[in-house]
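From the pipeline queue, job 12 of 40. The input is one protein chain; the requested action is below.

Action: predict structure.
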Amino acid sequence: MKRPKLNSSDRLLWVWLCGIWSDWRSVLIIVKPETVISWHRKGFRLFWTWKVRRRQPGRPAVPKDIRELIRRMSRENPLWGAPRIHGELLKLGINVGETSVGKYMVRRRKPPSQTWRMFLENHVKTMVSVDFFTVPTVRFQVLYVFLVLAHDRRRIVHFNVTAHPTAEWTAQQLREAFPWETAPRYLLRDRDRIFGDVFNKQVREMGIKPVLSAPRSPWQRAYVERVISTIRRECLDHVIVFNTASLYRQMKSFVAYYHESRTHLSLAKDAPESRPVESPELGPVVAIPEVGGLHHRYERRAA
C-alpha cells in the first residue's frame, strides 16, 4: 500500500483538527494498559475458580464455630497472642494452625488492656466504692447521703446523712467505716470536689489506692450506682423525708432489709448475708413486714 500524499489543504486541515481536538491520539490506541491488567486479574480469578471446581483446593477452611471461639478467646483475654490462644485450642482437641489463629483474632487499635468489668472482677474482694446522693425533704432542704459499698457480696459497709458535707466530714466517715486493720486495697470514686485534700490525705494514710472514674462515666462505678438506684426505687421514692433523723431512720431500716432479706441477681439470688433454704417440713409460709411494710420477708414457721 502506497503512502498517501498530503497537499497544503490536507496539512491545514490536520493542524486545525489538532488545535480543537488535543486528545485525538487516544482513538488510535486499541487496548489500554489498564485493560490488559484487568484482563490478567480476571483470568487469574477464573483460573483459581477452575482449580477449585476440579477439587484441588488449598488449605482447608476453618469451621465457623472454631473461628467464633478464636474471636471469643481474643476478646475475653486481651493480653493473649496467637501462640497462647493456639495452645489453648490444642488443649481442647482443636487442631488448627497458629497462622489461622492470628488471622481470626480480634484486631485492636490500641495496646491490649483489661476492661473496667475485668478490673472490677479481678479486685472485687479488695475494692470498695464511695459516693453521695441527694434527698429532698418536705421543706425542700437538700440532704446528702454518703455510702460505702464493698463489692464482694454487695455489702453497704457504712452510710451517714448530713446537710453540709465537707472533706473533713467525709474523711471521718471513712475512718468509721474501716478501722486501720480492715482498710481495703482500692477505693473507687468519682471526681466530685467534695473529696478534697483532707479526704485524699486520709485515704493515703490508710494505705488505700484511689481509683478515679472518668468524667461523666457512671457505668465505671456500676455497683454503687446500682445500689443508689435500688435505694431510691424501693424505698425513698415512696416516703417523705422530714429531716436528717427521719432520713437516717429510713436508710437504717432499708439497709437492714437489704443485707438480711433482699435477694440479688448478682449473688445467685441470695442476700448479702446469706439466707438458708427452708424446707417445707419447717411449716407454713408467713410474711414478715419490713421497711414499714414496703417489703416483706417470707419464712417458714411451725404452727
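Job complete. The chain has a mean pLDDT of 85.
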